[in-house]
Amino acid sequence: MKIPFNKPFLTGSEIFYINQSLQSGKLSGNYHFANKVKSWINSKYGLEGIYLTPSCTAALEMGALLVDLQPGDEVIMPSYTFTSTANSVLIFGAKPVFCDIHSKDMNIDVQKIESLITSKTKMIIPIDYAGVPCDIDEIMLIAEKYGITVMQDCAQSYGALYKGEISGKRAHLSCYSFHDTKNLTCGEGGALIVNEEFRRERASYLMEKGTDRTKMLKGLQKKYSWIDKGSSYLLSDILAAMLLSQLENEEYIISNRLHLMKTYYNWFNDFKFRDRLNTCKVDSIKKPNGHSFWLLLPTNNLRDKFIQKMKASGVTVHIGYIPLHSSKMGRKLGYQGSDLQLTEELAGRIARMPIFTEMSDTEINYTIEKAEAVLSELLD
Ligand SMILES: *Cc1c(COP(=O)(O)O)cnc(C)c1O
């Protein structure tokens, strides 16, 4: 049996909505399906200030533009993240300041943030690794104390909850991804959430090439013109149509994935060698969205052997991020591997197990059976 790491889920109604979009004659951004998507998210989670973007990367960039990030500004973020978190500030000349993560969930270690704050710190960008919300309330407290903006990179956590609210609701800004590696997808897509009302009007200019076209679309004025800086951060209506079909099935997608997570956890808790492994510990105030299940092996060498042996059994297991601070670009920015030793160590030990919405019982049982056999051999 071959078990892929991920398989994008299709609801079946994508083509129906895409066809409607094609027939509508309006294919660009902020039309019919974009509005439907925004209403869906608003009525389900109470989010307002939703801007649909071509990717989470674009949403992060738009957020950085919105707070007028300048050369010389510093932005605190985990080193254990995707390149886009750092690139979104680097392209404005700002400096990513990398913070260590915590082994409980691989998210930014809140205790280590404050010592990195300087007079130049403009933003903090925590991420929700594996769809598990970061400690956002604690981060917001620190940010408010110093007058810093928090943009939460929720690329992996659409639908995850923190104290009963969707993750991304409590930060000043937050970003979701609908890339085909995430739980819900339209191929490539994302959203910027602007939780502070006073920033929303300007956000609509920035996404529409610096114009007030949104006001014209709402019928508030006849013409639109250039009034601010900006770029094109719009998701095409064709992709918004696909996204709507996915959102209408989000309960199914998330509950399936949570069922798979539970199957992994049940196995893990009973596993003979569990004391030599670790996995994510989730506080009771958080409800993940089942994005990813990972294990920490005792060493880098055992992790690599585990992945290799699983591959030989037909199961694709992945490593996580290569820490940004010790990557080629991180070193160019002046960092060294030894700067964040815990991040370096944890990134070397993590293995991410296959999980996808329509993974069958047979597939997950096979995966677990192989993992148990390989790990028993490696850890004995
Ligand atoms: C996937 C991901 C991104 C990038 O999302 P895109 O939609 O592909 O641009 C950014 N940050 C994190 C943490 C991610 O997991």
Automatic annotation (TrEMBL):
The modification N6-(pyridoxal phosphate)lysine is found at K182. Pfam families: DegT_DnrJ_EryC1 (PF01041). GO terms for biological process: polysaccharide biosynthetic process. InterPro entries: DegT/StrS_aminotransferase, PyrdxlP-dep_Trfase, PyrdxlP-dep_Trfase_major, PyrdxlP-dep_Trfase_small. GO terms for molecular function: dTDP-4-amino-4,6-dideoxygalactose transaminase activity; pyridoxal phosphate binding. The active site is at K182 (proton acceptor). Keywords: Pyridoxal phosphate. Belongs to the DegT/DnrJ/EryC1 family. This is dTDP-4-amino-4,6-dideoxygalactose transaminase. The lineage of its organism: Bacteria, Pseudomonadati, Bacteroidota, Flavobacteriia, Flavobacteriales.
